[in-house]
Amino acid sequence: MIVKNKQFINGKWVDSTSNETIDIINPDTEEIFGTIVNGTKEDVDKAVESAKAAYLDFRNTPVKERQDLLTRIIEEYKKRKQDVIEIIEGELGSPDGEAHYMKGLNHFTEARNQLDDFAFKDRRGDALIVKESIGVVGLVTPWNFPTNQTAVKLAAAFATGSPVILKPSVETPLAGVILAEVFEAAGIPKGVFNLVNGRGSVIGNALSSHPDVRMMSFTGSGNAGSKIMENASKDFKRVSLELGGKSPYIILDDVDVDKAAQSATQFVYDNTGQVCDAATRTLIPESIKDDFIAKAKQIMENLVIGSPSNNNVDIGPLVSQQQYETVQTYIDKGIQEGATLVTGGTGKPNGFDKGYYVKPTIFSDVSNDMTIAQEEIFGPVMSIITYKDLEEAIEIANDTVFGLCGYVMGEDRDKLQQVSLAIEAGSVVINNNGGTFDLPFGGYKQSGLGREWGDYGLEEFLEVKALKGFYA
Ligand code: NAP
Ligand code: MG
Fold first, then answer.
1. Ligand nearest to the CA of 318
2. Which of 36, 52, 316, 355 has minimal Cβ neighbours within 10 Å of its Cβ?
3. How far apart are CA 32 and CA 34, in angstroms?
4. How far apart are CA 19 and CA 162, in angstroms?
5. Other CB atoms within 10 A of residue 177 CB
């Protein structure tokens, strides 16, 4: 069992003012995998005080020093690769620990590389525009990508000279503890990074109400995001929100159906469906319906479900009992609302009595007003919707409160471009192109506010100051 009952505040591992701990459950075995401390508002106050004390020095460090810090972080992070993988398997239940490890590494590397030529200064005539850190930032992160969602924020904060307090999800907090150990080993200046574990209702609330926190960067559900925004509105903190999605995958009629079925299913079952930009609404033309459904069904039925530590497993368990129940409720709702169950359904897959395992599920004959087409399920559940023509496909794609991502696959470049431009979302993936870590990521509509990743991510943490007559 991994016991990590300390907070990291002002450069030291310290006790919380609380003696309570929170158990972290391994979703495969349902046994206790580790514990963290159930932190308090007093812990937050101490962490914010230390971040505030570090602010001016850190803001004013030469860019090269911050770049060197990121380089040392990258070196230390690489040393912990095996630990990261084991923790991702143990606390999240993902069989793909290496991919999670790589996401963290890529964000730190991207931020370091951005500092090669990021323009913190811009001269206009005899005026100078400077971009400088906004101040102390509170980071609140979800459980589904415990290295990615944390690293993307931390890398941008360190690159811009912004001291932070991180509160990871109670479901998967140990990845955050490893990052704290990495930063400590990399010699991060005291106060620049603080880790306060505990519940969102306490720690997240204390951070977003704290007068010395100038920005909240949050990834998670709309409910918690809106509470953070409400608190932040009292003293006009900047808020950056990465929220949920119900992303459409428009399959064009000239597509290679094998490739389309492979890609569309993968974007549903990846990370056991616990992905904010999962392509959970699959929009297909009538002409390929039977062929596509048969192929998608075959792929989903051949997925290897199993313990995350086994080799060659495609999907592991969901993160928690609660998540298991939520997904069951949605599958049941799909059946009640009259969608056709192609494969999967409620209950655990054969042979799985223990662990939060669900059946990879496909619904067809879904209409876009059904609950399973409108609400985020966060499990491996595909909703297939057929469309008559491209105009209708685009209309259905945009008929959602979300706008995180869109996907399109086909042969005709004009149509691909037309669809990608018409989708109302922060990203569109064309023919499976994964893109690079310098592309902005974030949502339209209820999928969020602001952009992370690369130079756009750095901008979020910066204030802009115009110095008039600076060179006069
Ligand atoms: P969540 O319940 O909103 O939790 C996210 C974080 O917010 C956790 O650390 C949570 O604390 C904290 N929190 C809860 N209540 C809070 C409050 N009142 N004030 C401040 N913080 C609070 O979301 P989740 O279930 O962990 O994650 C799944 C959601 O995240 C999905 O909706 C998914 O789409 C979204 N997501 C979005 C992106 C993106 O980039 N757009 C990426 C990944 C996930 P606890 O530890 O106590 O739960
Ligand atoms: Mg767990």
1. 2
2. 52
3. 6
4. 30
5. 21
Q: Which residues of the chain have pLDDT under 50?
A: none
Q: Are 277 and 404 in contact (CB under 8 A)?
A: yes
* Residue from 467, 465, 461 nearest 55 by CA: 461
Can you tell me the distance from the alpha carbon of 391 to that of 184, in angstroms, rounded to the nearest whole number? Answer: 54
Active site annotation includes 276: yes
Nearest protein Cα to ligand 1, atom 32: 221
**pTM of the model as a whole:** 0.98
DSSP state string for 430-450: ETT----TTS-B--SGGGEES
Ligand nearest to the CA of 241: 1
Q: Is the CB of 142 under 6 A from ligand 1?
A: yes
Cα–Cα distance measured from residue 280 to residue 282, given in angstroms and rounded to the nearest whole number:
6
For the CA atoms of the chain, what is the radius of gyration? 23
Q: What's the CA-to-centroid distance between 236 and ligand 1, angstroms?
A: 21
Beta strand pairing call for 2-4 and 405-409: unpaired
Please tell me if the CB atom of residue 181 comes closer than 6 angstroms to any atom of ligand 1: no
Per DSSP bridges, beta strands 462-467 and 127-133 are antiparallel
State yes or no: is 405 an active-site residue: no
Judge whether 205 and 215 are in contact, CB under 8 Å.
Answer: no
d(CA 163, CA 57): 10
